[in-house]
Amino acid sequence: MFGFVGWKVFAATTPPSYGKQFYPYTREKVISVTGDLTPSGPNRPDLEYATRDAYALWSDIRFRDLATKAWSDVTPGGDYKGVITFNIIEEDAKDDFNKREGYNLIPFTENGVSYGPIKMVSEWANGNPDYIINKLKEGSDESNYYLKASNRYFVGAPTPNNTWYRLPSLIALSGGGLNMTTDMVAQAPTTSVNRGVTFPSFKTTYSTTPWPKIFTIYGAEGTAERQTVSSAKGMLRISTTTSSYWGNKHKLWFVEGKFSQEQIMAEINKTTAASGKKDATRFDSFAKNVYKEISTGGKQTFSYNTSIPVTDIKKITKADGTVRDYTLVVSDGYDRIAVQNFKLGVSDPDLAVDPNSISITPAAPQPAGSTASVSIDVLNNGTNDIASTYLLWRWNSTTAVQKVPIANFKAGERRKLKIEVKYPNHPDVLIFNINGYKDNPPNESDWENNRAQYKVGTGSVNLRATEIRVTPSKPQPGQIARFQVLVENESYTETITNTYLDWSVNGVAKERISSITLAPREKKWITDLKVTSVPEGDKLTIKAEINSGHNRPSNEYREGGLDPWVDNKIEKVYDLKEKTLNLFVKSVSSGTATQSQNVTTRVEVGRENLPGDPMEAKTFAVKLFLVDASGKDTLVGTQQVTFSKPGENKTLMMSWNTGGRDLGNYNLVATINLPPSQREKTYQDNQLSAGFTIYGRATNGTCKVTNHTSDISGTYEYCARYGTGYDSNGNSYSYCARYETGYYYEYFNSNFNKALSGTFVQENADEINGTDVPLVRSNSTTIKAGQGFNFVIDSKYTEDRGRTGNIYRAVAHFPKADGTIEDIELVKLSSSTNQVQWGIPLAWVAKHGDEVIYNEGGNPGSRNPEQDNYYYPGGRAYYASLAMPDGTYNIGVDLYASGVNNLTQCINIQFTVSDNLMNDFYVRQVMPEDPFPSQLFPTGATKPWVGSVETLKRLADWVNFSEDTINWPN
To answer: What is the C-alpha to C-alpha distance for residues 468 and 485, in angstroms, rounded to an integer?
Structure first.
C-alpha cells in the first residue's frame, strides 16, 4: 500500500491561436503598429494615422451567452483563451497614453490562409464568418463604426499582408460585445514589467448572442390554425426572436417557394454588400419575396409575436385557394439567420343566398301533398368564376336534404333558381344553404350569408326541458361542477326569443339564465350552469324549468289538450359517495449539500386517469418538506402544478437553500393536494420521501458553475377545457373551448453511483507493469493524509419528447494542503445515449518525491522501474497530500450537458482527513544523515520519532563503518 500527493503547478502563459511569431511574450522586442491611435491620445488629430513601436503582450478572453450566462464551448467552464495585445510605446513628446496603450488585433492572413484568423474569431463569437469576410473584402464603410477604416492596422511594414483588425469590432460584427467597465479587468500589478509576459494584461469576458429563432409561422382565421385562409380574414401568426449586443435588427423576408437553411444562407452570403443597405431587394434575383423590418426599440433581445393580415404578403400569394410552399427568413443585423418553411393558401370566393328573394307559389296554407314552386336568388360575390357548386334545401321538420346543381357560376352573377316542393301536413320552415358542405369552393370569405330560411304557414309553440348532464360525470363535494340542460322548441315555424331558464341546487335557487333564443324545431344545450363547490352530503339534486313564468311565450300548446307546462320541468339526482380523482407523487430526487447551499430537487407528480375525472385542467399545490431525525418538518418549497387532463404526469424542479441547518441526515418529503383542496379516491400515494444529507460548510473545492439543470425545450398547445356542440341534425360533438400553451422541458441530473471511499492498491496488483491497477475500497469517507480515494458519478439527460442531448464534460475541484485547488477533468468510464458514467483518471505516482500525474495514457515517465523517473500506477483514485491537516474537506464537481439549452450542475462530496499514512510502521532504508527527507516527509518526522531524530543521526558513523564504532552498538 502507498499514498502520494501531487505538487503545486504554477500557471503557464496562454499561447495565442494566431501570431505565433510573437510567442513567447516578451518586452525585449518591439514591432511597429500603424493605424488610428487616437484611442490612446484623444484630441490628437496627428494620431488618426500614426506609427509607434509596440510590445506584443498577453491578454486573456472568454465568451459567455448574454442571456443564459452559459460559457461558450470555445472557453468551457469560464476558461480563458490567450490573445495578443499590442502595447504602443510613447515616443513623441506629446504622447501621454495614460494606460490606454493596448490594441487587441487579429491578422487578415495566417500561414498563407487569407481571412483564416477572421473566420476563427467569428466562430468564437457565434457569428457568421462569411458576412464579416465579405464586408472586409468590400473595403471600409464609414457609416458603420465596426467597418470604418480606423479598425484596420498594419503590424510591421504597412503592406497588405501585414493588415490586422480590431478584435472587439470583429466580435461586434458577430453579434457580441462587452461592457468595458465590468467585463474588462486589468490584472495587477498594472505597473509590473512582467504584465503581459508572465501574467495577462487584461482578462476580458465577451458576451455572445444566439442566432435568430423562428418559433411559429402559420396561417389562421380567428383562433383556428388553417393552411387555407380567406384574403379578407386570413392572418399569419408569427413568433421570432433576434439578439445582438450592439445594434440589434429584426429583418423578415417572406419568400415564395420552399428553401432550405443552406440555400438561404448561400444567397445571404452572396448578397452581403446589400446587408443593411438594400435589404428590401436583396432576394429579388433569387425568388419573389416581401420584406419587413421591425423596430427592436434598442433591445438586445427582441421577440416579435404577432399576427399580420395575409394581404401584407399578397405580392407573393394568389387568391385561388391553392396551398403553396413559402419560406420565412429572419435575420439580425449581422446576417445570422433562421429559416422555416410553411404552407399557405389564400382564397377569395363568397357565395350567398338572398333571403328577401324567396317566395312560394301558391302561398300557404295549402292541402298536404299539393305541389308548389319556390323561387330563390343565389349570388357569386367572389372575384373568381365557380365551375360547379350547388344549393341544398330541406324542410326543417325532416333531415332529408335535396341538392340543386349550379354550373358555370360567373363572378358577380345573381342567378334565380326554381324548386318544386310539396306542402307538408303542418306549418314548416324551408332551409336553404348554398355550398352547404363547404367543399365547392372549400374556403369562402364569409359563410354566414350562405344560409337562409323561409317560413311557410303559422303553427303553435311548445317548449320542453328534456335532459340534464354534468361535468365531471360523477360530481364530488367541494369540487366545481358544470351542468347543461337540453331544451327544445317543438314548433315547426316559430322562433322563440328572449326566454329563460330557472334552476336550483338541493332546493337553493341559482341565478336565472336569460336571453335564450330557440329556432323552430331547435334543440339547444344551456351551458351556463356552474356550481363552484358541490354541497356536502350523499345526494345532489338539480332542478330546471324553462319559461317558468309562462310568459315567454304565454301561448304554449300541446296536441290533444295536454298540459303544455308539465314538460317545461326536469329534475336529476346524483350520488356523491363515489370519488373520481387520484393524485400521486411518483418520485423525489435525493441528494447531498453543504450548509447555505442552493439545491434543486426534482419531484414527479401525476393525475391518475380515472373514469369520471373530467377532461379539464386542474391545479394543485405541491409542497416540499425537509424532515430532521426527530421528525420535525420544515416547508422549503411550494409550487402550483396544473394538469390539463387525467392521465398526465408533470416534473417540477423545486429550488431551496440548506441555510444554517444542523449537519446530518434528513428526509425530503414531497406532497400533493395535502391538506386536500379537492377530495380524492385515496390519499395513500399523495406523498413520497427521499434521503438527504447536509455536510459541513465547504472550506474549498467549490463549484465554478451554478445549477441550471432544466430549461424549456419547446412549446405545444393543449386543450384546457372541452365543450360539447350539436350539429343541425342534433348530433353531439366535442370541441375545444380554450387552448393554452404548454411547455416541454429538458433535464440534466447527476448523482454519485459510488460514494467517496478511501482506497488502497490491491496487494497482488502488478505495480511494475500495471496500468489500471485494482483498488480496494474501504467504504469510508475518512482517510489518512497521503491516502487515495475515489468515487463514480452517473449523469443523465432527459427531454420530455425523448430527444437526445450531449453530456460532454465533468470537472472535479480538489482541495490541496497549500490552500489551492486542483482541477481535474473526469473521464468517461462508460456512455450510452443520454447517459455517462464519470470517474477519476488514472493516477501515476512518482517513484521519488510526492508528485502525482493524472493521465489516461501509459506511464508518463520511464518504462524502466529501475530509473528514478519511473511512476507507479495508482489506479483511478485521487491522492490527498501527506501535508493535509486533519479536517473535513469539500470537493465540488461541475458537470456540463447541452440539448436545446446549455445545462450545468454542481454536486458536492466530502472527505475527512484523520492521521497520516507516515505514522504507520514502514520497513524502509534510512540514511542517518537525513532520516526524514523533506521531499518524502514535508511535515517533518513521523510521530514515533518526533524529538528523537538525533538518535538516528548518531548512527551515521556506524553505518559508514567508522573504526571507532566497528562494534557499536554492543
So the answer is: 5
- How many other C-beta atoms are found inside a 10 Å radius of the C-beta of residue 787? 26
φ and ψ at residue 838, rounded to 5 degrees: -105, 145
Averaged confidence pLDDT in the chain: 87
Confidence (pLDDT) at 848: 66
Rounded to 10 degrees, the C-alpha dihedral 312/317/320/323 comes to -110
Calculate mean pLDDT across residues 600-613: 89
Quote the CA–CA distance of 21 and 26 in Å, as a whole number.
Answer: 11
What pLDDT shows up at residue 956? 65
Nearest to 426 by CA among 368, 373, 359: 368
* Helices 129-138/116-124 angle, 10° precision: 140
The pLDDT, as a whole number, for residue 731 is 67
Beta-bridge partners for 822: 814
C-alpha cell at 473: 360525470
Residue found under cell 355550398? 435
How far is residue 219's CA from residue 705's CA, in Å, rounded to a whole number? 43
Of 52-66, 128-142, 746-760, minimum mean pLDDT range: 746-760
Q: Give CA–CA dist 486/546, Å, rounded.
A: 10
What whole-number distance in Å separates Cα of residue 128 and Cα of residue 119?
Answer: 8
Stated pTM of the model: 0.46
Task: Report the distance separating Cα 150 and Cα 138, nearest Å.
Answer: 15
User: Which amino acid is residue 108, in one-letter code?
Assistant: F
Contact 485, 501 (CB under 8 A): yes
**How many CB atoms are closer than 10 A to CB 429?**
22
Grid coordinates 483564416 are at which residue?
A: 116
**666, 656, 722: which is closest to 690 by C-alpha?**
666
pLDDT, one tens digit per residue, over 836-877 is: 999 999 988 877 666 788 888 778 888 777 777 888 888 899
Question: Integer distance in angstroms from the first to the last C-alpha of the chain?
Answer: 35
Which amino acid, 534?
A: V
- CA-wise closest residue to 747 among 692, 691, 803, 706: 803
Residues 443-457: tens digit of each pLDDT: 787 788 999 999 888
The tens digit of pLDDT for each residue in 61-96 reads 999 999 899 999 999 999 999 999 999 999 998 999
Helix runs in 125-193, H state only: 129-138, 167-172
Q: CA 842, CA 878: separation in Å to the nearest integer? A: 9
Backbone angles phi, psi at 20, to 5 degrees: -60, -15
Conformational region of residue 38, where left means phi above 0, alpha means psi within -120 to 50, and beta covers everything else: alpha
Q: Report the pLDDT value the prediction gives residue 226, as an integer from 0 to 100.
A: 86
Query: How long is the chain?
Result: 970
Cell numbers that stand for 667 in this block:
428526509
Strand extents, DSSP E, 4-156:
31-35, 50-65, 81-88, 102-107, 109-110, 113-114, 152-155
